[in-house]
Amino acid sequence: MKRIWQTLTSGMSKYIIMRLLQVILVLYLYMTLVFIILEAQPGDITDIYVGNPKITPEARDAIVKQLGLDKPIHERYFEYLKNFVTGHLGCSFKWGNISPTPDPVCREQRPTWDLIKERLPRTIVLFLTYTIVSFYIGFFLGKLIAWRRGAIIEYFSTVVGVTLFTVFTPWFALLLVWLFAVNLGVVPIGGFINPDSWTNIRQIGSVDCSVGISCSNIVFNQMLLWLGGLSLFWGIVYLWSRRFSYVWQRNVIRWGAVALGIVLAGLFFGGSWFGEVNRVVLARNTKFQFFVWYFEFPAGTIPLFPLALDFVQHMVLPILTLTLISFAGTMLLMRNTMLETMREDYVMAAKAKGLPDNVVRDKHAARNALLPVVTSLIFAIAFSVDGGVFTETIFSWPGMGQLLLLSALEQDYPVAIGSLVFTGIFALVAHVIADILYAFLDPRIRYD
Amino acid sequence: MQAAPTFKPAEAIWRVRLQLFWRGLKSSWAMFAESKIGLTGLGIIIFFAIFGALWPAYPWLMERLAWTPEELEAARNVPYGAISSIYQVYDPVTGYDPLIPGIENPTPPSRRHPLGTNQFGRDILAQLMASTSSEFMLGVLAALITVFIGTFIGAITAYYGGFVDTFFMRVADVFILFPLVSFLIVLGSMIELTLIKLAFVLGILYGFGQITVILKSQALAVKVKPYIEAAKVAGGSHFHVIFRHIIPNLLPLSFLYMMFNVTGAIFSEAALSFFGLLPGIKVSWGIMIDSAHSGGYILGGRSFQNWWLWMPPGIAITLLCSAFYLVGRGLDEVVNPRLRKR
């Protein structure tokens, strides 16, 4: 018992536990704040019916009663908290039910949670990709600029960087759509899928997706699972390969893992080959049932690769736009922190030791300048859903941001408020996870 | 018998203070003037300030150059002198030019309209100029509120510590992670946000967040300085120490963050009005882009036709936002000695 207590109250565990407790407090404050601000607005939801001749005052009173708006404020507050804790985010006003088994509470209407669940993966994929790409580019360029301070490249990249950093996002996105989609025609104008390539698809593997659940979501979630799994696999292999002392050994292992992952993904998304193997194996022997179950999913009937490519095509332009807009911030930040670390004594010492210039830059200065950049990366991930509203809307990418804007414009308040609160929760959770990772990276944080 | 010597200061105290202030300002300016980006930003801000201030002169000038009542009278076949002012028939911001048939709009830049007209016949340059002052007002007002709250709370939390500190830092945690854009969208759909309301909402939401934390850490560094101790020993009250000693030392940093907040506020206003969420604001750069976009003039054409509808407002927003950001960067080198060139 004592031992458990000691582990819990020391170092990392203590940090994580304290952080989680803080998060619960912050979450509670956030929910309360949203409630107070929404409650402080004049009138109530039924005000949208004021000019509607079909809704009599009696009918309006009935709606008020049905929505529970006649109850005293504290009861509504507790109900609001209870609903979020139990995961009931209300029913949409505008979205009809599409599931063959309707929700018992919402019946004809679609539950908000269902909408969010469908849209969140799309947003996460888009924003995780662009965040990683733009941070890598920003880190790389910022490092170079700081290293040659005063060169012409510094002025040039500062001007370009500041312009891109402060450019009016929706306008810039429209400009890029106009250039790449309308004029050059290399990418689609917007949207998530090209409906033509999905019209004949009624079934993926053994899952019937003609009613209720859409085929594109299944393929998209498969893609997401594969990407996540592959990144995890590559990360573990990368860490494991550091045990080897020779560079060539490490390289063989790392590149081997990359090749293996690409081949596996290619076979999976390529389709037919696995399907054949499945059928043969299944006919001969039932011992491999587990593996068969796993690989049976694409079933060889449709190659998933062109379908997956459809998403990728639609993602290119939003990712390009978001990267152009946001890499500049990282670049300028990296430049600043790099300028500070370059004055440290150990950089001087490394130079005096006679190390090559790029080694001093990459291994000594840049690594230590990385920490503030990682902090800003954490914030960027936490704010991805929030900041994506404009981009998603311009590119009609059906994610959380577009859902929020459309439901706000259409006065679909349950969905709007549900996604607003969920955006905050997402930011908070992402922030905490990143904080804990950060504490692993930088030991100074957990011990203060 | 000698008269008792009376103490006569060489100069009045306010004069000394003024001189010190002036000297500090001069040396800061010298440092600021060294950074080219800061000066560029300042130049752009001054340009837009003049541009906005010239708005009342634009109709006056155009009435004498292009929109002469005589021309209108000749076109309309009305007797000479029937139209004394162009304003009787034409308001450049919201009305349409009576000499251009509605079907011809949008018209390219011409003598009558230096930047052309949009599809409703409204003069682009007039709209640009008319909304400049409100963009300035919104940005500066929101940033002032932010900085006021941030400086005050930052100083108080650093000075008192304890419960006050914990409370405001947890509140700051909430506001830092607050999904501002989403929130403004939901709010904009519920109530009619006017310029002043929006400035207050933005100011409050920014004010309790990041800026409080930054100014608090600066105030903590000020708090341990010997002159604070001296002021306390000399019998200064909490109020006196906070307002006369801590806050003046925070002001340079507050001013710096104010610049960045102006950028954020102008951007938010433009984006919200672009998506039609600010019905309380009638003319704005964001609305100009929106009307070009929703009219199909941006994505409708392959060539660069109709550029005058959407290039000027987009460039104006970008330039004004980047100008405040650049001034902030220039000030950063003054306030933050670690960034200065050796």
Please describe what this structure looks like:
The complex is a heterodimer of chains A (448) and B (342). In chain A, 72% of the residues lie in helices and 3% in strands. The longest helix of chain A is centred in the last third of the chain and has 37 residues, at 305-341. With 448 residues, chain A is mostly helical. Chain A has helices at residues 2-8, 11-39, 57-66, 73-85, 112-147, 152-166, 169-183, 215-241, 247-270, 272-284, 289-295, 305-341, 345-352, 357-382, 384-394, 400-409, 413-441, 443-446, and strands spanning 91-96, 109-111, 203-204, 207-208. Chain A contains 18 helices and four strands. In chain A, the strands form two sheets. Chain A has a two-stranded antiparallel sheet with strand order 1-2. In chain A, strands 3-4 form a two-stranded antiparallel ribbon. In chain A, helix 6 (152-166) packs across helix 12 (305-341) and helix 15 (384-394) packs across helix 16. In chain A, strand 3 and strand 4 form a beta hairpin. Chain A is globular, with a radius of gyration of 26 Å. Chain B is built from 13 helices and no strands. Chain B has 342 residues and is mainly α. Chain B starts with 12 loop residues before the first helix and ends in a 7-residue tail after the last helix. In chain B, helix 5 (124-160) runs antiparallel to helix 6. Chain B is elongated and about 90 Å long. Classes of the chains: A mainly alpha (448), B mainly alpha (342). At the A-B interface, helix 2, helix 6, helix 7, helix 12 and helix 15 of A face helix 6, helix 7, helix 11 and helix 13 of B.
